[in-house]
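Narrative summary of target 7.
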Amino acid sequence: MPERPDRRPPPSPKRPGWRHATPPPAETPAETPGDHRSVIDSAVYRQGRRVATPATLAETFRRLREQPGRMAWIGLHRPTETELLSLAEEFNLHELAVEDALEAHQRPKLERYGDTLFVVLRAARYLDAPEEVEFSELHIFVGPDFLITVRHGAAPDLPAVRRRMEETPELLSLGPEAALYAILDAVVDGYAPVVEGVQNDMDEIETEVFRGDPEVSRRIYELSREMVEFQRATRPLVAMLHGLMAGFAKYGTDEELQRYLRDVADHVTHTSERVDGFRQALTEILTVNATLVSQQQNAEMRALAEAGFEQNEEIKKISAWAAILFAPTLVGTIYGMNFENMPELKWAGGYPFAILLMAVVCTSLYVIFKKRDWL
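Modeled conformation, tokenized:
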């Protein structure tokens, strides 16, 4: 099970309720995906208070080493290889972790490389306009005196996390560990609007299913894929948080931080259970939709079969009457040929015989067709 850095944070005053001290503000322009700056914010802290805001990474390294007891918090957005390599050289980051941070597309995980923790998180946000879930990847390096965030995507709102922590310097003075927990909390809190949005989508899908919307199958499939991604983001996080909690006693984690992490673990467990429920419900809805579609197709086939049966009945009646009318026509045609040597032409009973023959043939055909329900 992964461990946390071997450093005991100094005692500090407690401040209950820090998780919701201020609501997360809207994403700042500097954090938008379209920005080409890799270094979003770089700051050096002492006793939880910002003492320097270096303009470059080199200056950040210098200001961090000027005085013991300082902590650097560096926020990056899709950094270049050169920037990450310079950080790796300064803070002795493992090459495998650096490679993962550069390439992204990693599963959520927590790994320990010496005295540095490497954490991968999958943040999510719900987009109202297209009604879909967007996932972002966040890589975090946590050391004894530094915290580096490498973000691939729009979420979470890390500037808001930094501002909230700077408003509670007694918590930030606990070091990178406290900042890591605050980021974990922001990522997990970001799942709540996604769950609400997905719940609304589920309600709409159920209505569309029973309304017979032909496009609902595609929507169910797309939402199911998003729930698979959501599961991949939340399930590993549950184990990661329990791994961190397992190290409380060994590393003497501050009691207040322990409570915060337990609260985050409770939230992510609840979210994971909701996501599992969504996926199960989508499977059931898809089954119901397939059943309804099958019933509709069967009804259409039954209607076509009934229409064909009625058409066949009409054809039978027409064919029967055509046969009945054809018999006297045939007899009359034969005796209307006027040949010299026809045997019945000079017979006195020929005409009554022809009429009787027509009547007998027509009556016989009518009786036969009637018995066979053609008439």
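The beta strands are 39-46, 49-52, 70-77, 109-113, 116-127, 132-142, 146-152.
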